[in-house]
Design brief:
Number of domains: 2
Largest sheet: 7 strands, parallel
Number of helices: 14
Strand order of the largest sheet: 3-2-1-4-5-6-7
Strand content: 15-25%
CATH architecture of the largest domain: 3-Layer(aba) Sandwich
Amino acid sequence: MKICFITTGNIKYIATSKRAFGMANPLSNLGWDVHLLIEDVEENRKRSLMECNENVTVHYFPKGNALAELKSKNTILKSIKPDVIYLCAFVFRNIVRKYGAKALSEHSELQSAIQDLKVIKRYQVKFLENYSILYSDGVLCASKYLEKFFIQKANKYHSKINVMHFPYAYSKELYKALPDELLTNNFISLKDKINFVYLGTITNNYGAKLMVTAFDTLLKTHSNIRLIMLGRGRHYDETLALVKEKGMDEGILMPGFIEEEDIERYFSVADAFISPMNDTIQDWARCPSKLYMYLPYKKPIFTCKIGEPYEVLKDDGKYFLTGSADNLAETIKDFLENDTTSSTVNPDLHTWEQRTMEFDQWTKKVI
């Protein structure tokens, strides 16, 4: 079976192509002929070399406007002649001609639920959500919320389309705990404190101000802890200024964007992870990819009983009230002073190899 993953954008800024990179080798190992359509930028080429073996064929299309991108993708697809095309995100730039192939479309968020969308944009994303049912031969949903949403939408249109819950996963090659002898001195030096690590976009919507406010409280009584916030975003400068204003430079580290090869080093010195969530449709529907990257380190994860984090962690999660910096501080304080439990979540159930086997079995039933 020949499959072609359709992606768009730079993986540094658009995470939806993580699915293609994560599944490429495992699918190839199962006997699939795997092709990836990737935008020709440095970060994508670097990621391709890092994650794709010699049996995976990567096709690069030039960066351009939506029409030019679609033209390039269609030209490449016509020459590949795949049996299956996998749209890593159902956006205009990915809606290619099928050339007789079966089309599988992924939804990793519910854009129509974003509160500050302009009216025209909201109509556009609602159109895409509806059209994906008509265009696709199968829909894969990164969260349980999305699965329920698209089953209901399919029923509305009397469609017999197959809908699958298909969350993100992690790569065993990229994310593993490193022993001290494989860490440089600057990372070993970070082990002088108890480290709480966050990876993601630095925006207030993703909990940037909430985490800083919680640690402003905690650091007054627990000088032996540190918050490491990895990533950048539209509130990065504002958050960094707040850290400096409150004199928390020693207690909160913000190194900015982290190269892929350094993430496992920071994760290896983590004593716990943080993944804030909001009680909004947007957060119930999305699947935080960092959650799965945290799992192989078998450390406590502080999050909220919202959507996929609760689906995965169940009783293993260290839960705080959504939007409450005070409750996050209290939950961490209780952990520091009283908690001795360890994670029982099996990370092997959330690898790309496991997801790929599930996908392989599903496609045999529906294609």
